[in-house]
Amino acid sequence: MQTDQNPCIICVAITGSLPTKQNNPAVPITLAEQIESTHEAFEAGATIAHCHVRDDDGNPTSDPDRFAELKAGLEKHCPGMIVQLSTGGRSGAGQVRGGMLPLCPDMASLSVGSNNFPTRVYENPPDLVDWLASEMLKFDVKPEIEAFDLSHVVQATKMQQDGRLKGPLYVQFVMGVKNAMPADEKILDFYIETLKRLSPDAVWCAAGIGPAQIVMNEWAIAKGGHTRTGMEDNVRIDKSTLARSNAALVKRAVEICYRHGRPVATWQQARAILGLRPRAN
Ligand SMILES: [Zn+2]
């Protein structure tokens, strides 16, 4: 798998719902900061921007107008980069979470089941999951399935089989979330094996939270998958040092790719691997 035929897609999760300037002053919060930080990360090698937006007070929101402004800014300043908008549950409840899908971003995140998060239940009831999936089909938005648990992997393959999701699936294994799955290599191997068995054409990536970020980068790259980094998941470059930027975290992932003999995917390659429109936006 580790040949130059298998470029690695690096996704940068720039902001998220939780990190603040108190955690790391380099976390981009305003639209201008988000666009600048993404541009640096794009130049460093990231080809997917996973995006959340904040309101004027810095709190997470699902406001479609904010998302529209960010999407337009990224398309202008990072031409070709894949824009992935979050439908995650920290910024709103119910169908509000999918209010930005009519903007027709390249991709959106999709959770297909529930699990515990550090301080709450991450609620993804079946009817909401089905509605979000149907909106993504309607607006031709490619979902990135966020798998926090083995049941999410299985559920995504079921949804592909019965037509609620269009294949090939793109599944992200998320590990290192407190009260959900730890970063455990044997479990990751079983996730990969199960996904390949139930959905042979699926493509996968992996992300880790906090100190698990670099661990998951390393494993995903070594095992031939794609990977995610960025300040949404982790604000440190090592135990005692804050990351200077999203780009610094992307560079760390790029170095791991080189160490494992994998080229970093260009945006054209990333779009081809994911079956997205080949054009620059
Ligand atoms: Zn997110």
Describe this structure in words.
By secondary structure, this protein is an alpha/beta fold. The chain has a single domain, classed as Alpha-Beta Barrel (TIM Barrel), CATH 3.20.20. The chain contains 8 helices and 14 strands. It has helices at 31-44, 64-77, 126-138, 150-161, 185-198, 212-222, 246-259, 267-274, and strands at 10-13, 48-51, 53-54, 60-61, 82-85, 107-111, 115-116, 121-122, 142-147, 170-175, 203-208, 226-229, 236-238, 241-242. The protein has an 8-stranded parallel barrel, surrounded by 8 helices. Strands 3-4 form a two-stranded antiparallel sheet. Strands 7-8 form a two-stranded antiparallel ribbon. Strand 9, helix 4 and strand 10 (170-175) form a beta-alpha-beta unit. It is globular and about 45 Å long. The two termini are 30 Å apart. The mean pLDDT is 95. Bound molecules: zinc ion (ZN). Residues 13, 16, 50, 52, 86, 88, 232 line the site of zinc ion. Zinc ion binds next to loops.
